[in-house]
Automatic annotation (TrEMBL):
Transmembrane segments: 41-61, 81-106, 118-143, 166-185
UniProt source species: Paenibacillus chitinolyticus
Keywords: Membrane, Transmembrane, Transmembrane helix
Superkingdom of the organism of origin: Bacteria
Identification of the protein by name: DUF3592 domain-containing protein
Length: 296
């Protein structure tokens, strides 16, 4: 067991070393895209089982607050059941499972598309979609169980108890959130796939040049805990020196120093990709706290 755990840790560290720092000559922040060596352009199909599972778990978890707290239980008996301590305890356990599964959706989205923006949209869709779905189901069940009761949003202000209209508004908010993520997802996936296709093509057919990091400018911003930089890389093509500017995202302990050797891939279409030369023995900033985000 210990050997297996150590092996997984080393594998995780190796993936970390392969993907950071991440460079992009076209995009910045969450739109920066990577393609791990040996990986193909990402596909959405492998993510669907994880996405649906996470959404289902969020639906089950959300049934307790929507039904017991927001008045969306169709009968008093079901409301009491959803508010029972055992049910609440099960919902809390499911919440942790849902969070873990959503983390799996996020990490697998990164593996497929190499982009935090796409991964964030998949994770958002699983959460908001699941909660919107359970709100819609409970609202429909509640209204059909008592067809004589009108649906009136004014009840939010006038009802002496928590009315289902309040739950409907909360559910609609999650539905809007899910709809926005759903509408943005296809374009984001297409963008990530185009970037990965460019990287794949440049690795297979492009001109590979040895580059030197000549300028490193910290933007004083972070994506999560990863510092963001703008860099300049000098390289030579057909005896003529050239300079390419790029955005760089990395971890605080993986900031290459000026003079580090990089690989510049380019073609006659003007497409350029920059990545770290792992075989050159890159030198990183020894002060690992220099670019770490402040706690304040």
């Amino acid at each position: 067991m210990r050997d297996a755990a150590e092996g997984q840790q080393k594998h995780g560290q190796q993936e970390h070393f392969e993907t950071l720092p991440l460079f992009s000559t076209t995009d910045k922040n969450g739109r920066m895209t990577m393609l791990r060596p040996g990986h193909r352009v990402g596909r959405a199909a492998p993510l669907m089982p994880w996405l649906l599972t996470a959404a289902a778990l969020w639906s089950l978890t959300g049934s307790v607050p929507f039904g017991a707290l927001l008045g969306m239980a169709p009968t008093p008996a079901i409301s009491m059941l959803l508010g029972h301590p055992v049910t609440v305890g099960v919902a809390v356990l499911l919440l942790f499972v849902a969070i873990g599964t959503t983390g799996g959706v996020y990490s697998r989205s990164i593996e497929q598309f190499g982009q935090t923006r796409v991964a964030g949209l998949f994770a958002t869709l699983s959460i908001a979609g699941g909660l919107a779905a359970v709100a819609g189901i409970l609202l429909f069940w509640t209204l059909t169980s008592d067809v004589s009761r009108p649906f009136d949003l004014e009840a939010i202000a006038t009802s002496p108890t928590v009315p289902p209209e309040l739950g409907a508004v909360v559910g609609a908010s999650f539905a809007l959130w899910a709809a926005i993520a759903f509408l943005r997802l296809p374009g984001s996936i297409a963008h990530a796939r185009r970037r990965q296709a460019d990287i794949e093509r440049l690795r297979e057919e492009g001109l590979s040049c040895t580059g030197t990091l000549t300028a490193l400018n910290f933007t004083n911003s972070w994506l999560f805990n990863f510092p963001i930089f703008t860099v300049e890389v000098n390289y030579i093509v057909d005896g003529a020196p050239r300079v390419v500017s790029a955005h760089m995202r990395t971890s605080a302990d993986r900031v290459p120093v000026v003079g580090s050797i990089l690989i510049v891939l380019t073609d006659n279409r003007g497409t350029t990709h920059v990545e770290l030369d792992l075989e050159s023995g890159a030198t990183f900033e020894p002060d690992v706290g220099k670019y770490a985000p402040s706690d304040g």
